[in-house]
Amino acid sequence: MRRGSRRRGVAVVAPMLLLLLFVAAACGPRAGAQTLPAPAHADTLPESLAGTQWRLVEFRSSDDGIGTQRPADASRYTMSLGENGTVSMRLDCNQATGTWTATVSGSSFGFGPLRMTRVACQQPSLDGQIARHAEFVSSFLLRDGFLFLNLMADGGTYVWEPLRE
Predict the structure, then answer these.
(1) C-alpha–C-alpha distance, residues 20 and 93, integer Å
(2) How far apart are CA 140 and CA 41, in angstroms?
(3) Nearest Cα to 137, choosing from 146, 123, 148, 127?
(4) Is the pTM of this model over 0.85?
(5) Are strands 94-102 and 115-116 parallel, antiparallel or unpaired?
(6) Which residues, listed in sequence order, are joined to residue 58 by a DSSP beta bridge?
(7) Per residue in 11-23, pLDDT tens?
(8) What's the rounded Cα separation, in Å, for the pair 135 and 129?
(9) Which of 116, 95, 102 is nearest to 147 (CA)?
C-alpha cells in the first residue's frame, strides 16, 4: 500500500467523523433539558390484562385435521396474569410459571420461558400442547369478555374466559 493512499483515506474519514459528531450534538438533548426515564412497564402489561385470571375454553386450530379441542375439565386449565409480569398456570395435573408481556398500543402478547412440572396427566390432556405452544403466542384480542391468544403464522388460537370463583 502506498503512503499517499493511506493519507487520502484519513483525510476523508476525519471530516466525516467531525460531521457526524456535529450532527449528533445538534440533534441531542438541549443543554439543561432533562430526559425522564420511561416508567417501568409503561408500554406493557395492559390494565385490561394485568391481575386477571382465566380458564381455558378451547383451542381453535387452523389445521382442519385438528379442528377445535376442548379440555375435558376446563377447571383444570387456568391462567393468572400477574400485575408484575408473572404468569402462573394450572395445566391439567401440572403447574407452570413464567413471565408475560403485552403492549398497550398494539395487540402483541408473549410468554417468556415457562417452568413446568412434568407429571404424567391422564390422557387426553392439553398440558404438553399448551406448554409447547406458549413460545409461539404472538398476539391477543379481548372480545365479548373472552381472551384470544393467537399463535404466530396462523397456527391457531387459545380461547380463555374470565375465571370466576
Answers:
(1) 60
(2) 18
(3) 148
(4) no
(5) antiparallel
(6) 159
(7) 444 444 333 334 3
(8) 11
(9) 102
Nearest residue to 89 (alpha-carbon basis) of 128, 32, 63, 123: 128
How far is residue 83's CA from residue 49's CA, in Å, rounded to a whole number?
8
For cell 474519514, name the residue.
Answer: 13
**Nearest C-alpha neighbor of 48 from the set 137, 146, 133, 152:** 146
Distance CA 159, CA 68 (A): 10
The span from the CA of 165 to the CA of 148, in Å, is 21
Q: How many CB atoms lie within 10 A of CB 55?
A: 18
Determine the CATH number of domain 52-162.
2.40.128.270
Task: Give the CA distances from residue 137 to residues 3, 28, 33, in Å, rounded to whole numbers and listed in that order.
Answer: 58, 38, 40
| Per-residue pLDDT reduced to its tens digit, 104-158 | 777 999 999 999 999 999 999 999 999 999 999 999 999 999 999 999 999 999 9
